[in-house]
Design brief:
The structure is a homodimer of 334-residue chains. The first copy, chain A, is built from 13 helices and eight strands. Chain A is globular, with a radius of gyration of 21 Å. The longest helix of chain A has 16 residues. In chain A, strands 1, 2, 3, 4, 5, 6, 7 and 8 form an eight-stranded mixed β-sheet that branches. The N terminus of chain A is likely disordered. By secondary structure, chain A is α/β, with parallel strands linked by helices. Chains A and B meet through helix 9, strand 3, strand 4, helix 10 and helix 11 of A and helix 9, strand 3, strand 4, helix 10 and helix 11 of B.
Chain lengths: 334, 334
């Protein structure tokens, strides 16, 4: 682990200049990652872009890191957690909508047909959200999300969904933040579904979230201004939409991109095509015991073209089984 | 100036706790503002929301401040500076578009008819931008904006447009930032027109800008991924669009809102309607000598309903003539 030793030495030197925050001291910044090429290449990159004296130094304002969410910062099986949320909302209102028994994607919800539902992608989720929440204010929707998260349990782990975030990725976010990266989520998931909890769970501010959304409208209700959700799609932040969303919300090309599916390929390409040092990190779900193993044939989080592109371009691949000591925070020794 | 004295004393106490950054020491945080009610009320508000022991303390994550740009952080006469930019672009391409001689808003550009142009509002500006820049990549557009700003001169002051920012507002932004507010621009102006220079001029990061935009598309050009501007409006961040934009880009209701026209009224109302302490600040252009004097009858930056609402609700009004010692940074004594 010559590189890790070099890291400790260089970090020690850098910290004396006062430009690097205390966290970059000599403790291991990624304790839940096994030693190996993946971990080393991440640390090497961070050392290079933060080394003011080196050829690959990147000014703080350009240290933009983007992270996909579903399957990248938390699990996404049996299906996207937001889809499970939307399904619960549909079930609650099904009595008032007899037509849902024959109309997709509602029919699939009522029949618990995950495979069909997953095939509708982010668009299907938004349709369910629109059908169940158009007319609600943004604050009512936030309340519904928080309420669901505090009561719903994951079918396999019997825990709140927010327990199923990846401990090694939490460490990576924190490590980048300690090195003055500005960290963003760039997810196909709903903006308003993520914002109520990402701050507490990932330490990523609400305004550093890019996601899919439906339109809202500013109106007065009993003399009080509210934002009402409309039954109209505003933006789908998936595939080619991701670099578009990055440009719109962030306005600067990332130098660090982390994702796990073909939906992240365009933002990987967009990140890779910039000047100077950059890091593309694809997470490969390889652990059928501790998490799930899937890639080219999965209807949720398919990694097919992205896997080819990663290999072809020499991007870094996380192999969960080999690279991670543990998956979830609750596995940490007490 | 009892309140200012109190400020100095309390700031001194707070700074001892280590939670307030050094800038909140006992120097005057707003040196270009005359002593008086406007300055005092701003300082009073900041003291209250940052005083951990007080009833109006606001946690750092909720300290969101939003600023309109045109006529609020820089001047907007004779017309919005972005309109002058767009007019220059239209003139450059006019030979290739004989139809512009009879089509609005191009006809008004070629006839230098500012009054008519101003009447088209943000929508008119976007139309000019679309006509001149659809098909360009986002990077080409950024280059065009930077190039224009480095060569164009304001007709009255014969200086670069970015010289015409308001020194007292720069101090206000900096004062809020020193007190751990996260500062955002929320402008009807174009996102991609503002981002190339706001960071340097206002010290507001590119991702903390909300504005109007046209759509972009992610495509490969000669094997290189680019974002191309499309001739289609994406979002108009004006009037009722401002709270919508705030929700979409920031995802949290501001506690401090600064604007100068009726276009800012909806975001003032949205800010005002939240719980806890909040500050609504309307800038009134009252100085016909050092800047411009205009309000209810101006086609650019009209302040009519907003002025009524400010008076009715007891919002703070900046009276430029009385409240500001100087307007532009270049007036500062050398």
């Amino acid at each position: 682990m010559k590189q890790l030793l070099a890291y400790v030495l260089i970090a020690g030197l850098i910290s004396c200049t006062g430009t690097t925050p205390p966290a970059a001291g000599n403790r291991d910044p990624l304790p839940s990652w096994n030693e190996g090429q993946t971990k080393e290449s991440i640390i090497q990159f961070v050392l290079e872009v933060t080394n003011e004296a080196g050829p690959d130094y990147v000014p703080v304002k350009d240290r933009i890191a983007v992270f996909d969410n579903d399957g990248n910062l938390w699990s996404e099986k049996p299906v996207y957690f937001q889809l499970l949320f939307a399904m619960d909302q549909v079930r609650k209102l099904a009595d008032q909508h007899p037509e849902w028994k024959t109309e997709q994607p509602f029919k699939a919800v009522l029949e618990n047909d995950m495979e069909t539902l997953a095939s509708f992608g982010e668009h299907g989720i938004l349709e369910l959200v629109m059908a169940t929440h158009a007319g609600n204010t943004t604050e009512e929707f936030e309340y519904t999300v928080k309420n669901w998260l505090s009561t719903a349990r994951h079918p396999r782990f019997d825990r709140p969904y927010t327990d199923l975030v990846f401990q090694p990725m939490l460490e990576l976010i924190s490590y980048l933040q300690d090195n003055q990266f500005k960290t963003f989520i760039v997810s196909g998931g709903g903006l308003d579904f993520m914002r109520p909890w990402v701050e507490e769970v990932y330490n990523i501010p609400r305004d550093q979230v890019v996601g899919s959304s439906i339109k809202t409208e500013f109106v007065f209700e009993d003399g009080i201004p509210v934002l009402k959700k409309l039954p109209e799609i505003d933006f789908i932040d998936d595939k080619e939409g991701k670099p578009v969303g990055i440009h719109k919300f962030i306005g600067r090309r990332p130098i660090f991109c982390s994702g796990n599916s073909d939906g992240d390929l365009a933002m990987m390409q967009w990140t890779a095509a910039g000047d100077g040092p950059r890091f593309m990190l694809y997470l490969h779900h390889t652990d059928s015991v501790r998490e799930w193993a899937y890639d080219r044939n999965s209807s949720v989080g398919r990694l097919d073209k992205g896997l080819d592109a990663a290999v072809e371009n020499g991007w870094t691949l996380i192999d969960i089984q080999n690279d991670w000591k543990l998956i979830y925070p609750f596995e940490k020794p007490q």
